[in-house]
Design goal:
Chain lengths: ~450, ~450
């Protein structure tokens, strides 16, 4: 018989790393206190009241990273039935929190309005989108050009004779696809809601200002040989290595969005996601009556304001921000704007030239009221793309990954938190708010069963 | 009418980058002279004889990067019918080149031998694998334990009483799955064959020692405004920016394997691939009669040597290297070994500890002849994973990407070169060697139609 382990043991002294005095042990560690992390922490704790769950966050408070950078809008108007289910149940829960529990999320039903050209409206993907919404009971309304022009006098629906518009490939507005159950909310309030509920039931004080440097991968079982784990050993993530010491747990929940690759790559798990920078620019309506008139268009919602509005071309969109009497302008750019595999803080700087050259020309062609308008504020954050634009939730080798929400994590946070809990407990179905169910492995990589999402912004 | 372009023009002076005197223009630029690049260049030139095709390569000769680092083995024994078709037709073409054209590729039919435990052999995925091979007419043979023991006396098929083997989770050998049409070849010879054929028909001298720094993305049409291309413009890759100047072309073929992300990420195309380092270690059989006996086992092939052999556990494999009378040892490690999103030269260093701790213990348990054997040589290269372990070939916005071969690019090179040509010419089907056809969009991202490959090494 060939003996090899004794020889391995003789190869060198056992390294002392990972045997620090600061080691602490928990049942679950949740990394990241953004909307997905706190929702997951809350539902896991709620359904496993005895488990010791540690929530760790790199910044100094909940929801301060990309959650705070979002356009903070919520919609159930997706093309995939998976995203419809995730968002529709989450939004109904947010309404429940605000209306019945009485916790103000600043949720306002502004509605979402997609402005579409004839060609876009008749595209196969838009037909499928509308059919699937009908089937799922998601209400929407179609406006024609005349109705739109009547309701939004400041909307330019006619580029006849405008050579610039032609050079810019701008599609004319022929239809509006409107969802009244969509709106905006305050993501910080949402994250704080889950966090406060979590704090009521957790046994472990959450820790802020703690940066997870690496996942702690160990042989299972350990043989106490130098250089473990070897290729032929079974391995499992047993915790996290942070700048404040080692924390151990049976399961590490990663709700780290565009930073996930940095933690998963070193242990050989392909997250399938990658990030892109997104920017928001704030335009105030005060002192300009045309912008005030646009902000205050009637007929779409009870607030008497313009809905979250997506232009037909270039991915440009805006939402009303009633508290500051203005607009947030964004852009769902695609080909030509770089992916960043791992997001760094240095990248997250808004570029005024991006507003001026890419958003403003489009915006002011469709809505001349914006002519001459300059941003009073701006910020940038990281968007985390999955290949099919549907989120991931899966447990592999001790890591429970919740990410890839593709720009719509906030509006799916409740459903994703419940699914993460079902995956943690190993039950085959997750029950979403309102009683609808989803198979727990639906959003996994290995047993994924979803339609590709075509309506991302 | 709102005028915006004049205002954009006034924003600043036009940048002078990309207007260098060294600019040259071609019809096609092929980036990367590895096996996929030269095969693509050859077939595109062959079927478009008038097109001016420039082949550029960072190193100083063909096939010097990861092509040269491979285990240089070829097999048609895949589980997906797509990979079966790509490899079976390519290998038949290699045989044709060697036997009929008379160009020696050093192709030797050693065969491939998977050693499997009872449990592995009866696994659903292995059943599917065998069924699909039958259906595709790929011949294989099953050996039982007694037959294997008889043919390879040096193979240990019994770990009874070996506590170390149990601690190491080693599966016992119960079956052998053998493919006689598989073997090894010299990848440098293969790349040189395509390159010589390409040189006979190309109008443009290939350039070596040229590093592509960026893809040249331009607005289409250009408006000659500062900071183009903007988000609202149509855009296209119009060439490459290299350390030796700008080269322009209608189509840029990227055959850059594990370096592809570095070029595609900045223009916002997600390659869906990522890399991992792989290492090979050379063991000589001379001076050790047990290793000589193992190298020279009879009955599997006409060469009278051990086949390319995959052990049941830990992904360890070896192949015979008859010219140097020895073995190349490799390992298809999985979870626990890091992914590298972009491959750097610095990473590509073999680690002796990897052989000693991860390969050697497994190897010597199954084949005690390796006991005490130490490598006389080693190297490392980059493996380029696709999510379904099937290659990508697609043309998007001026870039024709050929990558993601998942460790089996050499054995698919002929088929992938022909498919790249069909995609370039915009024809719906590619004809592979022997007359079999495949839809040109089969390997695209957007219209992908493949089975997931389960048999990767």
């Amino acid at each position: 018989m060939v003996n090899v382990l004794g020889w391995l043991a003789s190869r060198g002294s056992k390294p002392e790393a990972f045997v620090l005095s600061s080691e602490e042990t928990f049942d679950v560690i949740v990394v990241g206190a953004g909307c997905l992390g706190v929702a997951a922490a809350y539902y896991i704790q709620k359904n496993s009241p005895d488990k010791r769950i540690l929530l760790v966050e790199r910044t100094l408070a909940v929801g301060q990273a990309n959650t705070a950078m979002s356009a903070a809008a919520v919609r159930n108007m997706f093309a995939s039935s998976t995203n419809q289910l995730l968002t529709d149940t989450s939004i109904k829960y947010f309404e429940h929190v605000q209306e019945e529990i009485g916790y103000d999320l600043m949720f306002e039903k502004t509605g979402y309005l997609w402005l579409l050209s004839e060609e876009q409206f008749n595209h196969h993907s838009v037909k499928v989108w509308m059919e699937r919404m009908k089937k799922s009971g998601i209400s929407y309304k179609v406006y024609n050009k005349q109705e739109l022009k009547h309701m939004i006098p400041g909307l330019n629906v006619d580029f006849t004779g405008d050579e610039e518009a032609e050079l810019m490939h701008l599609q004319e507005v022929d239809y509006g696809l409107f969802g009244a159950d969509c709106g905006v909310l305050d993501p910080t309030r949402l994250v704080e809601y889950y966090f406060e509920e979590f704090k009521k039931i957790t046994h472990i004080k959450p820790r802020f200002g703690v940066e997870v440097k690496k996942l702690l991968l160990e042989a299972d079982p350990k043989l106490d040989l130098p250089g473990e784990p070897y290729v032929w050993q079974k391995k499992k993530v047993k915790g996290v290595i942070t700048d404040k010491g080692i924390f151990r747990a049976d399961v590490v929940v990663l709700a780290t969005g565009a930073w996930t690759n940095q933690l998963l790559d070193p242990i050989g798990i392909d997250s399938m996601t990658k990030g892109k920078k997104r920017q928001l620019f704030v335009i105030h309506a005060e002192d300009k009556k045309e912008l005030q008139a646009l902000l205050e268009v009637k007929g779409f919602n009870e607030l008497g304001c313009i809905p979250f509005t997506i232009l037909p071309s270039a991915g440009v969109y805006f939402r009303p921000q009633l508290q500051e009497h203005g607009f947030w302008i964004g852009c769902g750019d695609t080909f030509g704007r770089e992916y960043k595999y791992i997001q760094t803080d240095d990248d997250m700087v808004p570029e005024s030239a991006y507003y001026e050259t890419s958003m403003y020309p489009v915006l002011s062609k469709y809505f001349p009221a914006f002519q001459g308008a300059r941003p009073v504020n701006s910020w940038a954050g990281g968007y985390c793309y999955s290949p099919d634009r549907i989120p991931f939730v899966y447990l592999e080798c001790g890591v429970l990954v919740v990410n890839g929400a593709s720009g719509s994590g906030i509006m799916k946070a409740d459903a994703l938190g419940r699914i993460a809990d079902a995956v943690y407990r190993g039950v085959s179905e997750a029950e979403l708010f309102g009683g609808k169910k989803i198979l727990s492995n639906t959003l996994s990589i290995k047993e994924r069963n979803v339609e590709i999402e075509s309506v991302i912004i």
